[in-house]
Amino acid sequence: MVRVNIVGAGLAGLSAAITLAEQGVACRLISAQASERAQSVLAEGGINAALNLMGEHDSVEEHYADTMRGGVWLADPNAVWGLVNDAPAIVRRLASLGVPFQREHGAMIQRNFGGQKKKRTAYAKSSTGKVLVSALVDAVRGYEARGLVERSPHHELVWLDVAQDALRGVWVWDTFAGAAEYCPGVTILACGGMGGLFGGLTTGTTTNTGDVAALALVAGVELANLEFLQYHPTTVPITGKRMLVTEAARGEGGRLFALRAGRPWYFMEERYPELGNLMPRDVVSREEWAVLNDPACGNQVYLDMRGLSKGIWRERLSDLRDEIRDYLNIDPAREPVPVEPGIHYCMGGILVDEWHRTNVAGLLAAGECACAYHGANRLGGNSLLGAIRGGMVAARSALEEPAISADESALREPTVWVTDNAVEHAMREALVGCMGIVRDGATLERGLRRLETLPKTSRVLLARSVVSCALARNESRGAHQRSDYPQTDDAYRRTTVATCRGGSIEVSFKELPEPREGVPRP
User: Fold this and answer.
1) Fewest CB atoms within 10 A around its CB: which of 195, 290, 415, 495?
2) Is residue 295 included in any domain, yes or no?
3) How far does CA 20 lie from the centroid of its chain?
4) Mean predicted confidence (pLDDT) in 421-449
């Protein structure tokens, strides 16, 4: 008998399914498409863990400090402490499952990544997400054969059955059969971020629409820190979306520059001599924004990888080189690549505690859809770690949640939303116009007023929540930069919480948890 529903079959969902199956608990893995097409496969650079393999005296304490500093002290310290302490065992387990992490002379190696002073990122060339998904898919198949994991592919979540702040089950739509199906029981949402709200400006899969977060919002689930959108500094436009040029390129020695007075100006190295091109992503994107708005710099930033050795291209970045040649007709080993910032990751999402529980009993969330570990800005290499660890923790917590029986006589098939292309276009235009790298109150107000003229679909209400959170945070912190409030204000070192009541969006602030005994104070 299925005891737990898991919505989403990327790394967070697969990790949750494995954790439940290991306990002999049956689960249903619900997804719109196969795991091999989940957004997780697009992750390139690597997964962080303080394994201390590179002779740099790395430690979980330093991983914790880098994560908290990178998130500008807005993450839950207890959740982050759990994340960094579990990381070494998670990476070793992945290696035991057959993940082909990069090795030299038979030993695993790690690389530099942004916002971290130590080589802490384990990787498989620049296809880490893809090989992690493959390994976990193989592990799940064994449990499928034993009847512990039931796959429901080509199924989309269309409604959460919530009554009196408790989840009784979820409605899903079988896109092949064209029929709704009710799945009772405790549910883990592991469905990815909401970057799809922004259309072609995101590096994520075009099928990641943000619908699940939107449905959760209208069902009474609290969302948090929606103003923090990570713009990755090195993306290139391709058909319908942005292609990521992995941070690993800078970790291996790639350098950002702009032409100033006709000569290359390596602006990150000049402005940040210690970490240079490996500053946290919010800092790099903000500096790029300034350069792109400087008429003296020709409105273009380039990534210079011509100095990378043949060995690095062959052993560590061969797949990245192939992608750039295929999509841009540029050989990055011989000429600079024009890049620009693109929306890459949502630090905010469904508000969870350190055990990945939401404010609705019986509902948990993990992966990018959850606001869990990253605060105001995510470090590269922490997303894959957060997804896998989040799935594990959510699964364990799900076992402690009581199943709430639904009154079948009260059940009715939900209305399946039909997308209105004109509304979608207007929503995206309003969002893109006000949620850039640098924002101000007047622009945000105009964007919100435009969104308030649109029909109250779940996506529009989610978009209004994003802008409302940005308006409420009158400071600059991490990925949220306000030109009218340029300073970081300790009074705003709190979590932004968005709720939907009767079609209206309300924003409040929640204090961060105090560190438990043994957890370093931020």
Assistant:
1) 415
2) yes
3) 23
4) 96
